[in-house]
Amino acid sequence: MWIGFSKPWSPRSGRSSRRCYIRCLGSVIGSAIYHRKLKSMKLDRTDIKILHILQQNGRMTNVELAEVVNLSPSPCLMRVKKLQSEGYIEGYTAQINVAKLGQALLVFTEVTLKNHRQTDFARFLAAIEKVEQLIECHVISGGYDYLLKFVTTGIGEYQEIMERLIELDVGIDKYFSYVVLKSPIRRAQLPLTKLFQP
């Protein structure tokens, strides 16, 4: 990587050019080392607290957030931007009360594939990724391969989805469906301060 030069330095370029080249090269190497260290930085308690609070209220202003985590606004904003740039914060979304919109059916589905080659898993995942009613997919250890979570308008729509997947021959050997009757406990936030304590 050459900075400020149209061609690499050579002995014929002179001492001043050589010094400039060394300074530029040192700057590039120093910058690379800094960014590598930055990416490998571990989060402290304040970072975890910021994440914990933002997942509860993503619309909180920076001033409000800074007050809660005992920082001044500027350092707080820098931390949030760092958490965003390094992928700890993937985005901000609204939590929708589906019951207010109308009737919806929540179904968990255990799926076992006929074969377990890499191509079989890839083909199955490629097919279910296109199903908009699928909101979660987990690879599971134990007696089956996948645990899927669907939200549909009713049992009829869910059955149509599964029949379509069977007809597409995406490698499903068997599946078991569990219709959710009631969800007495539902949490959208993770207990970050309990899970991660630097």
Feature tags:
single chain; 198 residues; alpha+beta; Arc Repressor Mutant, subunit A; Alpha-Beta Plaits; 4-stranded antiparallel β-sheet; 4 strands; 45% helix; 15% strand; disordered N terminus
What does this structure look like?
The chain is of the alpha+beta class. Among the domains are: 45-85, Winged helix-like DNA-binding domain superfamily/Winged helix DNA-binding domain (Arc Repressor Mutant, subunit A, Orthogonal Bundle); 98-179, Alpha-Beta Plaits. The chain has helices spanning 15-39, 45-56, 62-68, 73-85, 98-101, 118-128, 155-167, 192-195; strands at 105-113, 134-139, 146-152, 172-179. It has a 4-stranded antiparallel β-sheet with strand order 2-3-1-4. Strand 2 and strand 3 (146-152) form a beta hairpin. Helix 3 crosses helix 4 (73-85). The protein starts with 14 loop residues before the first helix and ends with a helix.
Strand tally is: 4
CATH homologous superfamily heading of the domain at 98-179 = Lrp/AsnC effector binding domain/regulation of amino acid metabolism (RAM) domain
CATH class group of the domain at 98-179: Alpha Beta
The largest β sheet comes out as: 4 strands, antiparallel
- What name does the CATH topology of the domain at 98-179 carry? Alpha-Beta Plaits
**Count of DSSP-assigned helices:** 8
Would you tell me the structural class of the helices and strands?
alpha+beta
Instruction: Quickly give the CATH architecture of the domain at 98-179.
Output: 2-Layer Sandwich
Helix content: 40-55%
For this structure, the quaternary state is: single chain
Work out the strand percent.
15-25%
Which residues form runs of ≥5 with pLDDT under 50?
1-13, 15-40
- Give me the strand/helix succession: HHHHHEHEEHEH
Q: Over the alpha carbons, how many angstroms does the gyration radius reach?
A: 26 Å
**Strand ordering within the main sheet:** 2-3-1-4
